Amino acid sequence: MDRMNEPGSAVSEPVTAPTTEPAPTAEPPVTFEAFFQAEHARLLRALFLVTGNEQEAEELMQDAFLAVWERWDRVREMERPTGYLYRTAMNAFRSRVRRAARAAKRLVGCAEEDEFARADQRDAVARGLGTLTPRQRAALVLTELLGYGSEEAGEILGVKAVTVRVLASQGRTAMKEKLERSDG
Fold first, then answer.
1. Which residues contact 68 (CB under 8 A, 6 or more apart)?
2. Coil, strand, or helix at residue 146?
């Protein structure tokens, strides 16, 4: 192997030699179009679960992909561009929720009680998620909200699949206790 890399050596590296790292090229290994095709359906489903509204989920998805596209030269170089996409979408969702909450405060009394109950439930879940460790929260969101299996979630988080399952279980237990305490 050392002879192959010596200057002036007549021995050249075989074409089919496996490499552990991609060769540096001017072109990124993944195009934005391929990234979009691979992730848009999953992101839309996740956002629908979060928002409960198909049109809002579609708008949030489009906004998130637009933000990623605008920064694609940096995002494609990230270790986990999918994580950046989901974080961008969730930040946009939280911004919308905050704007809606401010608007609702100005119009108190105009909304139906059912909507308030749903808002209270979402708030309780958000507060419960806020009490978890970042790793528990990430494991729960990836497995429960985004539908990743423990193997995929483990790859995203850089941990073993069993660790994801343990973190998610601990997170569910902590959330259940938090929600029971706030109800009682």
1. 32, 35, 75, 81, 84, 85, 88
2. coil
The domains of the chain are located at: 30-111, 112-184
What count of other Cβ atoms lies within 10 Å of the Cβ of residue 170?
Answer: 16
pTM of the complete model beyond 0.70: no
pLDDT tens sequence for the chain (184 residues): 444 444 444 444 444 444 444 444 444 457 999 999 999 999 999 888 888 889 999 999 999 999 999 999 999 999 999 999 999 999 888 888 888 777 767 666 554 557 777 887 778 777 888 888 888 888 888 888 788 888 988 888 889 999 999 998 998 888 888 777 766 5
Is the CA virtual torsion 85, 91, 97, 100 positive or negative?
negative
Going by C-alpha positions, the residue among 141, 131, 135, 133 that lies closest to residue 158 is 135
- 112-184: what CATH class? mainly alpha
Identify which of 153, 127, 133, 154 has the alpha carbon closest to the alpha carbon of residue 42: 153
Where helices occur in the chain by DSSP H, the ranges are 2-5, 32-51, 54-70, 72-75, 81-106, 113-131, 134-140, 150-157, 161-183
